[in-house]
Automatic annotation (TrEMBL), chain A:
GO cellular component, one term: plasma membrane
Organism (species): Kribbella turkmenica
PANTHER family: ATPASE AAA-TYPE CORE DOMAIN-CONTAINING PROTEIN, OLIGOPEPTIDE TRANSPORT ATP-BINDING PROTEIN APPD
Higher taxonomy: Bacteria, Bacillati, Actinomycetota, Actinomycetes, Propionibacteriales
Protein name (database record): ABC transporter ATP-binding protein
Single annotated GO MF: ATP hydrolysis activity
Length: 332, 288
């Protein structure tokens, strides 16, 4: 059953007097218990998608389209309903755990405040629950941790605390906005493992935002690739790696360094990534695409079904049939 | 990651603390404490009745029972000084308390809701700041009538813009931090986040600015009393004493004006130094 549904979601932000489009019509469904990856370069508005879902867009943002959570219109929620929605339905894990915690309050304050206020627990019960939540994310000495301040904990531990806090409201959807980007690689693996385990044991739906295709594939059922404020390709993670359809995805997969191959230089996608507001009327990727034809610049491609994938490319079908060697850059 | 900003966390290093605060800072803190104690218990420890008139002793020099001598009306100067500390020193505290409470509430609300509320607050503050506080107070007292309550309220309102402007910029920086977003997505009410999380992080700046404002308030309240708009004679007050002592200055007996003036200068100077040190310390904590 569909838990979250984004329909033609558009977001415009006012930037210094002028309006800038950051989301240009995003359609995405997340089923209950499903994990979906949202992958793209910086500036492709991945985080804006997450912020739109939790209604945390900057003041002045104009939102168009529909966000439905469990059949309910999120954009139409009133003040009080919005707080309930944030407290119990959707939880967010932020990129930098050090910034996500108030430096002058203890871990215990941070965890218990939400439990007391949104779950209505008495203090002693909230503390016990907080210890349980910490145990669930792999922190065993919870009692001691509750008394500590954020600066006394390592980044990996803090991110676990943030995840524990996210679980406090028993959410059904977890938005993980680059939860491992600020951490080192070994900690990254631990955090991803925790998220994966929680999702399975609790039946949580997960929107995993990352710029790392491999990381997203390791935890997500389906992966959506974003470019310049729209989804350009969406398919099952394993399929996406085996048979990417959009030239941008192919480029991203090809651009990963490979330790088994000695290359004179890395295969990078030529040009600079576009921000959503810079996108031309045609295909946003046209300028960087090796397969661009006149139609690509004239017409904005729609997200269309191509075998198992949804692809936003005029030439996807032609490229698939006529040049099977296109995906060669992919690591086998 | 770059250096973390921990505004509320003080350095635990002993040497670091002393160097940031300095001898002058500690000295002014001591002065403030002593003056506060005197202001609280002054009327009870005064050796004589500060209102007792003895015209035979007019301008009489210091003697064993009267360490600072007598004023024009033959009242004991030391007793008047001690009793006057209450209005001269505690009055500014009330003024600043009022300005701090109102100013920081406005500032945090503006920073939190942003947009039109923030623009409106900034516009009003800019206009209010262009208007000298003392002039505003004189105007208010002229309308309402002289007296300590009117002068205190008028000065309190006059300092609100100074407080609000500084706190707003600090709060704006704090509201933009991720932890505020993290609390909002947990579904916590806005007022709670603002009061329990944002305010504690900008406290040091609020306290520092409050101490600086105390210095101005001390001088301004004394000035109002000096002009006859604040505390009314014969009630003892340092500003009133400076004014009353003027006739003595012309006759060669400057004691009354001088001792009250010295007290005012020392109090204002101590507040000023203390405020500067406190503000510098939180800037130091930010720079680390």
């Amino acid at each position: 059953m569909t838990l979250l549904s984004l329909k033609a979601l558009r977001v415009v932000l006012p930037v210094g007097g002028s309006d800038r489009q950051v989301l240009r019509g995003v359609d995405l469904d997340i089923a209950e218990g499903e994990s979906v990856g949202l992958v793209g370069e910086s500036g492709s508005s991945k985080s804006m998608t997450a912020r739109a879902i939790s209604r945390m867009l900057p003041p002045g943002a104009r939102v168009d389209g529909r966000i439905e959570f469990d059949g309910c219109d999120v954009l139409g929620l009133g003040r009080k309903e919005l707080r309930t929605y944030r407290a119990h339905d959707v939880a967010t894990v932020f990129q930098d755990p050090r910034a996500a915690l108030n430096p002058v309050r203890t871990i215990g304050d941070f965890l218990c405040e939400g439990l007391r206020l949104t779950m209505g627990m008495p203090t002693a019960m909230a503390r016990r629950r907080a210890v349980d939540l910490l145990a669930e994310v792999g922190i065993d000495d919870g009692e001691r941790r509750l008394r500590q301040y954020p600066h006394q904990l390592s980044g990996g531990l803090l991110q676990r605390v943030v995840i524990a806090a996210a679980l406090a409201g028993e959410p059904r959807l977890l938005l993980a906005d680059e939860p491992t980007t600020a951490l080192d690689v070994s900690t990254q693996a631990e955090i991803v493992a925790i998220l994966d385990r929680l999702r399975r044991t609790r039946g949580l739906a997960l929107l995993f935002i990352s710029h790392d295709l491999d990381l997203a594939a390791s935890i997500c059922d389906r992966t959506a690739v974003m470019y310049a404020g729209e989804i350009v390709e969406l398919q099952a993670s394993t399929e996406l790696h085996r048979a990417p359809r959009h030239p941008y995805t192919i480029g991203l997969l090809g651009a990963r360094p490979d330790i088994e191959q000695a290359l004179p230089r890395l295969r990078a996608i030529p040009g600079q990534p576009l921000a959503a507001f810079e996108a031309p009327p045609g295909c946003a990727f046209a300028d960087r695409c090796a397969h661009c034809v006149a139609a690509c610049r004239a017409d904005h491609p729609r997200l269309e079904q191509l075998s198992t994938a949804l692809v936003r490319c005029h030439r996807a079908e032609a490229l698939q049939t006529h040049s099977p060697g296109l995906a060669k850059g992919k690591v086998s | 990651m770059t250096a973390m900003v921990l505004p509320g966390v003080r350095p635990t290093h002993k040497a670091g603390r002393a160097s940031a605060f300095g001898l002058a800072g500690r000295l002014s803190a001591a002065v403030v404490i002593i003056f506060t104690v005197v202001a609280l218990i002054g009327p009870w420890v005064a050796p004589h009745d500060p209102q007792a008139v003895d015209l035979k002793a007019s301008f009489w020099g210091p003697d064993a029972g009267h360490l600072l001598g007598y004023d024009a009306a033959g009242r004991d100067l030391l007793s008047r000084l001690l009793a006057g500390a209450r209005t001269s020193f505690l009055g500014p505290l009330v003024i600043v308390g009022f300005a701090t409470l109102l100013g920081s509430s406005i500032a945090v609300a503006a920073a939190w809701y942003g947009r039109w509320l923030d623009s409106a607050v900034v516009a009003v503050l800019d206009v209010a700041l262009a208007f000298p506080g003392l002039l505003l107070a004189v105007l208010t007292v002229a309308i309402v009538g002289p007296g300590l309550p009117a002068a205190t309220l008028a000065l309190g309102v006059a300092y609100v813009p100074h407080m609000a402007r500084l706190v707003r910029s600090a709060a704006l920086r704090e509201v933009g931090r991720d932890y505020v977003d993290a609390l909002r997505v947990q579904g916590l009410p806005a007022v709670r986040i603002a009061v329990r999380h944002v305010l504690p992080n900008i406290w040091p700046i609020v306290i520092g600015q409050a101490a600086l404002t105390l210095a101005w308030a001390t001088v301004d309240l004394a000035a109002l009393s000096y002009l006859g708009l604040g505390v009314q004679p014969p009630q003892p007050d340092w500003g009133v004493m400076v004014a009353a002592g003027q006739s003595g200055v012309l006759q060669g007996y400057p004691a009354e004006s001088v001792v009250a003036g010295v007290c005012l200068v020392v109090a204002a100077g101590a507040f000023n130094l203390l405020g500067q040190r406190l503000l510098r310390r939180c800037e130091g904590a930010r720079a680390r």
